[in-house]
Write a structure and sequence with these properties.
This protein is α/β, with parallel strands linked by helices. It has 4 domains: 290 residues, TIM Barrel; 179 residues, Glycoside hydrolase family 3 C-terminal domain (Rossmann fold); 126 residues, Toxin - Anthrax Protective Antigen, domain 1, CATH 3.90.182.10; 110 residues, Sandwich (Immunoglobulin-like). Helix content is 24%, strand content 25%. The chain contains 19 helices and 38 strands. The strands form 10 sheets. It has a 6-stranded mixed β-sheet, sandwiched between helices. A hairpin with a 2-residue loop joins strand 30 and strand 31. It starts with 6 loop residues before the first helix and ends with a strand. The chain binds beta-D-glucopyranose (BGC). The site of beta-D-glucopyranose has 7 residues, from loops.
Length: 826
C-alpha cells in the first residue's frame, strides 16, 4: 500500500527542491563532477560554498559499522537478514530499522548501505544469509518495513544490489541472462514493492550485468524502469568499485561512483563534459539526486531534513534478543512421554549437556561487508548458564567445524604500534581481534600514509587450553611473526590473482607456525607488517590480520567426550554451525554439508540421548541427515549478539520460537532445484525461469525436508473460517493449546486452470496474530492485485489473468487448513 505524503511532507519536499535548485545553480562543472565521486571509502566531499556537508555511508544490514572497520568501535549486531525474514513481521523489521537509524546517528552516518533484497535463487549463493527469502513478496514486505524504520529515524537507505546479484561467482563480470517475466515477477519485484511502498532514498547498482549490460550502466533498468515506471527519486550509488565507465555510467543513470578518491567520475567526468562526450544536463540530474538526498538527511543548509523529531530511543540489546527469538524456526519437536521435548522444564531438569564449538564461540553474523563488531556476544553457553540453576549445565566441544585460523580475539590483548622509516613510533591504537583494517584516513592519531612504514600488532595471549596453538596471517606483503620470543615466520605474501578485487586485497588466511602453550600462562606475541607502498589498491589502506587457531584435538576423542556428557544428561543440546569459509561474501558454496565432523557428532549424541535437541547456527540451508533421529531441531540462523540469551528464552519456554521458514530447506543437495551459480563463458542463464524456491519444488512435485512457511510454536492452532474477496482474505484462527502464542497466517493462491505458464501456487499475503489459550482471533489479509497478474512480454506491461483461483489459508505452503474458490474478473 503506497504511503500518501502528508501536507507537511509535501511542503518539506518543496522547500528541499527549492534549496537543491538554488545550490545546483551555484556550482561549477568541476565541483559538480567532484560531488558525484567518493572522496574516500565511505563519504562524498563537502561543498562549503553551497552549505553542503559531507555525506557518510556505511554497511549494513545487521548493524551500522561506521567508517572504521574495527572492534574498537562497536555496533549493535541484530540477527542476519534470513532471520529477520523468518519473523514474517514487517513491523518488527521496522523497529529494527529504527534502531539502525539510532546507531547510524550515533556514528555520524547518514545513509545505510542496506537492505539486501536479492533473492534466494539457489541456496549455494554465498550471500544467501544476507538476503531475505526465495519469495519476492515476503522479501518486499520485510524490506519495506526495514526501509521505513531506518528512514523514520531520518537516515537514508540504499536498497541493494539492483538487480540480480543472486550469487557471488565472478560477480564483477557475470552476465545474468534473464527473460522479462522472471526479471519482473521475481528479481525486480522486491525493489518495486519497496520503492512504491517505502520510498527509499537510495538504491545500489550491482556489480553484475543483466542481459548484456553492466548494471551501473543499465539505462533501461535504472532510468526507464526504476525512475520512470516506479517513480524512484533517490540516488543510485555504485556497489564498491562497480563503476567502470565515465560515459556509460552517467548516461546509464548512475549518480555516485564509490569508493574514492579515484573514480570514473570527478575529473574524468568533468573532462568528458568539456570534450562534448557527455551532456552537462545529464550530470546535473545526477547532482540533483545527490543534493536531494543530502537535503533529506539534513546536510544541505537551508533545506529542512525530512525527520525533525526522532522516534523514541530503542534498547538495542533488548531488540536484538527479541528479533532473535522471533526468528528461531522450530522445525521439529517430537512428543515423548506425552509431551513435546521443547520447551524444557527448567525446574525438573537435573543435567543439560550443551555440545558444539559454536555453543561457546557462536557465529552471530555472516562474513564480508555485512560484518559489524558487537560490543558483546551472548553465546548459547553464556545464555544457558545464566538461565539454568547452578550445577545443571555441562559443556563439551564435541566437534570443531573448522580447522581454519580465525581472528586473534579470545585471550588476546593487542595493540597496533605504527613506526616510520627510522623505526620511530608515530602512533598506536588498541586492536581487539587482531584485525588491522585502516581504510583511507582512518589511521591512529599522528599517523599518515606517507610516514607509516611498519605496523606491529603486539601484546599478550593467555591460552584457554594447553597444547599446540597455530598462528597465522591474512593480508598481502611482508610479515614477521613472533610468539614467546620465537620467530615463527619471516616472509612475504604475494598478491593473489583472484578475479574479485576484494579477495585479492584481503588475501586468504595462512598458517605461519605453531607453539606449544599452557592454559592460563600468558605469552608475548608480535606480528610486524611492512606497509607496501606499491599497493595496487584503489585507495590508501592498511589491511592485515593476526590469526590464531586453538589446539586441534583428536576428533573421535572430542566426540566421545560429548557422548559421555550427553549420556548422563536429561537433555542434550547440540549446536552445529557453518563457518566463515562456508558462508560469506565473494564466493558461493559448493555443497550444503555441515563442515567438519558435526554430522557424526549429532548422530553419536542422539544414539545415547533420546532427548537430543539440535540448534542449527547457519544463515542458509544445510543438510541435516540425522533430522529424523533427534527429538527437536531449531534453526537459529546467525542470531546476532544476543542470540544465546534468546536461545535460553526459547529452550526453557520463557518465550515461544516465533519464526517461519522464509526459504525451503531441502533434504539433500541432490534435490535442490537451482544449483547453477557459475557462469559459462561469462554468462549465467537463469534457465529455470520463474521456478525458484517453492515454485520449483511444486513444479517438480518434490518434497523438501521443511517447506516454505513452516515453523512450530509452543501452542496449537485451529483454522476456523476463511472468507475471501479478490482484495482480501479474512481468516479466523483459534489457539487450541495451553499457552499464549503468535500464529503467522499465510495465504496462498493457486490458479485452477492456467492459460499462462505459472507456478502451482504462490504467497499472496500473510499476517501475524496473537491469542491466549482457547481464544480466537480474526485477521484480514490484503491480497494485492499483483497476486493475480503476470508480466506480459508482448505488451511490456502487467496483465491480470482472470479465472478461478483457489485461495488457501494455512500454517505453511504445505500445511493448508482452509480453502475457498475465487472468481477473478478482468
Ligand atoms: C558489497 C556491498 C557493500 C560494499 C561496501 C561491496 O563489496 O557488495 O554490499 O555495501 O561492498 O562495503
Amino acid at each position: 500500500m503506497a504511503v500518501q505524503p502528508t501536507t507537511q511532507d509535501a511542503q518539506g519536499e518543496q522547500a528541499r527542491n527549492a534549496a537543491v535548485e538554488a545550490a545546483l545553480g551555484k556550482l561549477g562543472l568541476d565541483a559538480k563532477a567532484r560531488l558525484l565521486g567518493g572522496q574516500d571509502m565511505w563519504s562524498l566531499p563537502a561543498l562549503p560554498e553551497i552549505g553542503l556537508k559531507s555525506l557518510v555511508m556505511s554497511d549494513g544490514p545487521v548493524g551500522v559499522r561506521g567508517v572504521r572497520w574495527t572492534a574498537d568501535d562497536p555496533s549493535v549486531a541484530l540477527p542476519s537478514p534470513t532471520a529477520l525474514a523468518a519473523t514474517w513481521d514487517p513491523e518488527l523489521a521496522r523497529r529494527a530499522g529504527r534502531l539502525l537509524a539510532q546507531e547510524a546517528r550515533r556514528k555520524d552516518v547518514h545513509v545505510l548501505l542496506a537492505p539486501t533484497v536479492n533473492l534466494h535463487r539457489s541456496p549455494l549463493g554465498g550471500r544467501h544469509f544476507e538476503c531475505y527469502s526465495e519469495d519476492p513478496f515476503l522479501t518486499g514486505e520485510i524490506g519495506t518495513g526495514y526501509v521505513r524504520g531506518v528512514q523514520d529515524g531520518g537516515v537514508g537507505t540504499t536498497v541493494k544490489h539492483f538487480v540480480a546479484n543472486d550469487a557471488e561467482t565472478d560477480r564483477f563480470t557475470v552476465d545474468n541472462i534473464i527473460t522479462p517475466r522472471p526479471l519482473r515477477e521475481l528479481y525486480l519485484a522486491p525493489f518495486e514493492a519497496i520503492v512504491k511502498n517505502a520510498h527509499p532514498w537510495g538504491i545500489m547498482a550491482a556489480y553484475n550485468q543483466v542481459n548484456g549490460v553492466t548494471m551501473t550502466e543499465h539505462r533501461y533498468l535504472q532510468n526507464e524502469v526504476l525512475r520512470g515506471e516506479w517513480g524512484f527519486d533517490g540516488y543510485i550509488v555504485s556497489d564498491w568499485m562497480a563503476a567502470r565507465s565515465t560515459r556509460g555510467d552517467i548516461e546509464g543513470g548512475l549518480d555516485v561512483a564509490m569508493p574514492g578518491p579515484v573514480t570514473v567520475y570527478g575529473e574524468a567526468l568533468a573532462g568528458a563534459v568539456r570534450a562534448g562526450e557527455v551532456d552537462e544536463a545529464v550530470l546535473d540530474e545526477a547532482v540533483r539526486n545527490v543534493l536531494r538526498l543530502a537535503a533529506r538527511v539534513g546536510l544541505l543548509e537551508g533545506a529542512p531534513a525530512v525527520v525533525s523529531e526522532l522516534p523514541e530511543t530503542v534498547d538495542g540489546h533488548a531488540l536484538a534478543r527479541e528479533v532473535a527469538r522471533r526468528a528461531f524456526v522450530l522445525v521439529r519437536n517430537q512428543v515423548r512421554d506425552g509431551r513435546p521435548v521443547l520447551p524444557i522444564d527448567a525446574s525438573k531438569i537435573r543435567k543439560l549437556a550443551l555440545v558444539g564449538a559454536s555453543a561457546r564461540d557462536a557465529r552471530v553474523l555472516g562474513g564480508g561487508s555485512a560484518t559489524v563488531f558487537p560490543e558483546r556476544v551472548v553465546a548459547p553457553l553464556d545464555g544457558l548458564a545464566a538461565a539454568l540453576p547452578a550445577g545443571t549445565l555441562t559443556y563439551a566441544v564435541g566437534a570443531d567445524p573448522s580447522d581454519e585460523l580465525g581472528p586473534a580475539d579470545k585471550g588476546f590483548e593487542l595493540r597496533a604500534v605504527c613506526r616510520d622509516a627510522t623505526g620511530h613510533v608515530i602512533g598506536s591504537r588498541s586492536l581487539p581481534g587482531g584485525q588491522v583494517q585502516w581504510i583511507g584516513n582512518d589511521l591512529p592519531d599522528g599517523v599518515t600514509h606517507e610516514t607509516l612504514r611498519t605496523v606491529e600488532v603486539k601484546g599478550t595471549f593467555t591460552p584457554r587450553e594447553s597444547g599446540e596453538h597455530a598462528f597465522g596471517t591474512r593480508g598481502i606483503g611482508a610479515f614477521t611473526l613472533t610468539v614467546g620470543g620465537e620467530v615463527l615466520y619471516d616472509g612475504v605474501q604475494p598478491m593473489s590473482d583472484a578475479s574479485d578485487p576484494f579477495e585479492a586485497f584481503f588475501g586468504a588466511p595462512a598458517e605461519r607456525g605453531r607453539a606449544r602453550l599452557t592454559e592460563g600462562e600468558p605469552v608475548e606475541v608480535s606480528l610486524v607488517h611492512a606497509v607496501d607502498k606499491a599497493d595496487a589498491a584503489p585507495l590508501p589502506a592498511v589491511m592485515f590480520s593476526f590469526l590464531h587457531g586453538a589446539p586441534q584435538r583428536d576428533a573421535d576423542e572430542l566426540i566421545a567426550e560429548a557422548v559421555e556428557a550427553a549420556r548422563d544428561a536429561d537433555t542434550a543440546v547440540v549446536v552445529v554451525a557453518t563457518t566463515e569459509s562456508v558462508e560469506s561474501e565473494g564466493f558461493d558454496r559448493t555443497d550444503l554439508r555441515l563442515p567438519g565432523r558435526q554430522d557424526d557428532l549429532v548422530r553419536a549424541v542422539a544414539a545415547v540421548n533420546p532427548n537430543t535437541v539440535v540448534i542449527v547456527n547457519s544463515g542458509s540451508p544445510v543438510e541435516m541427515p540425522w533430522r529424523d533421529d533427534v527429538a527437536a531441531v531449531l534453526l537459529g540462523w546467525f542470531p546476532g549478539q544476543e542470540g544465546g540469551a534468546a536461545l535460553a528464552d526459547v529452550l526453557l519456554g520463557a518465550e515461544e520460537p516465533g519464526g517461519r521458514l522464509p526459504t525451503t530447506w531441502p533434504v539433500s543437495f541432490a534435490d535442490v532445484p537451482v544449483t547453477d551459480v557459475a557462469p559459462q563463458d561469462g554468462e549465467l542463464h537463469y534457465a529455470e525461469g520463474l521456478f525458484i524456491g517453492y515454485r520449483a519444488w511444486d513444479k517438480a512435485g518434490a518434497t523438501p525436508a521443511y517447506a516454505f512457511g513452516h515453523g512450530l510454536g509452543y501452542t496449537t492452532w485451529e483454522y476456523e473460517s476463511l472468507e475471501v474477496t479478490p482484495a482480501a482474505a479474512k481468516v479466523r484462527v483459534r489457539n487450541t493449546g495451553s499457552r499464549t502464542g503468535r500464529e503467522v497466517v499465510q495465504v496462498y493462491v493457486a490458479p485452477q486452470s492456467d492459460s499462462a505458464e505459472r507456478p502451482v501456487r504462490w504467497l499472496a499475503g500473510f499476517a501475524g496474530v496473537e491469542a491466549g489459550p482457547g481464544e480466537s482471533a480474526e485477521v484480514e489479509i490484503t491480497i494485492p492485485r499483483r497476486a493475480f497478474e503476470i508480466w506480459d512480454e508482448q505488451d511490456n506491461s502487467w496483465s491480470l489473468v482472470p479465472g478461478s483461483y483457489e485461495v488457501r489459508a494455512g500454517r505453511s505452503i504445505a500445511d493448508s487448513r482452509l480453502g475457498a474458490t475465487l472468481d477473478v474478473q478482468a
